[in-house]
């Protein structure tokens, strides 16, 4: 039998995951960059009226997501660091991909610049209360938060019904919450995160629109094959990546010799 008092080598509870610290200049600059991206998404969403109404929910969700990240970064919330890193990495990859599709147009270059600044200033921002950041937890939370915008855009795409949206977005939210619990040493967070990742993968695989590769893009002038499928695969892959840092400690704990 295992010693009931023993527990796997999960990270110690992190003080920086809840409280806030005095706002730092890098944090405020990252917040301004996130707010600028939120404003750009709002302009794009408004510009879709009335021809592309079906894409407005997805872009409105991005407006809210970046605004929440901006508010958290401005006040140096611990959770906002990971939300900022995740959304900045996601946006940077998306806009770099856009330059290969439509060329180096101004809006794509501006998106790259804003997300690069957001990423840079979030990285150099001082953690809340000056606490050390566990690298394993930071990696997991960054991946989980990067999966969130993928899930929002994929789940709210007009090709999908509400069941697909609920499965993908709900799964991503579960992964974020579960990884936050793992950062506080809660073993149940591993199983919850696995459930969320599997939910995203199963929903994406069974989504009716997964194989629809030639639907016109909401903004780009040409059809954008595989873009929607790529978002679903990215959401699922990032969710599983968020869980991987915790497999080692759990397996070692379960496989060690039992104590008398």
UniProtKB/TrEMBL annotation:
Residues forming coiled coils: none
This protein's UniProt keywords = Membrane, Transmembrane, Transmembrane helix
UniProt-recorded name of the protein? Uncharacterized protein
From the record, give the transmembrane residue ranges.
29-49, 55-75, 82-101, 107-125, 137-156, 162-183, 190-214, 226-247
Organism superkingdom: Bacteria
């Amino acid at each position: 039998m295992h010693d009931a008092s023993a527990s796997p080598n999960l990270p110690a509870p992190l003080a920086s995951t809840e409280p806030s610290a005095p706002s730092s200049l890098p944090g405020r600059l990252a917040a301004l960059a996130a707010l600028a991206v939120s404003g750009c998404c709002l302009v794009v969403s408004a510009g879709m009226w009335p021809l592309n109404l079906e894409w407005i929910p997805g872009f409105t969700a991005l407006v809210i997501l970046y605004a929440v990240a901006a508010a958290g970064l401005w006040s140096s919330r611990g959770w906002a660091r990971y939300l900022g890193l995740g959304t900045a990495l996601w946006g940077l990859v998306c806009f770099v991909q856009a330059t290969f599709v439509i060329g180096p147009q101004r809006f794509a270059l501006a998106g790259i610049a804003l997300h690069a600044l957001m990423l840079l200033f979030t990285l150099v921002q001082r953690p809340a209360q000056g606490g050390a950041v566990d690298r394993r937890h930071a990696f997991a939370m960054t991946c989980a938060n990067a999966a969130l915008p993928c899930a929002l855009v994929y789940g709210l795409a007009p090709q999908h019904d509400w069941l697909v949206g609920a499965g993908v977005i709900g799964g991503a939210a579960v992964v974020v919450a579960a990884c936050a619990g793992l950062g506080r040493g809660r073993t149940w967070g591993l199983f919850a995160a696995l459930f969320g990742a599997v939910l995203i993968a199963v929903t994406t695989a069974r989504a009716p629109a997964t194989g629809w590769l030639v639907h016109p893009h909401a903004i780009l002038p040409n059809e954008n094959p595989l873009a929607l499928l790529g978002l679903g695969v990215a959401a699922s892959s990032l969710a599983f990546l968020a869980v991987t840092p915790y497999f080692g400690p759990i397996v070692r704990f379960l496989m060690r010799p039992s104590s008398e």
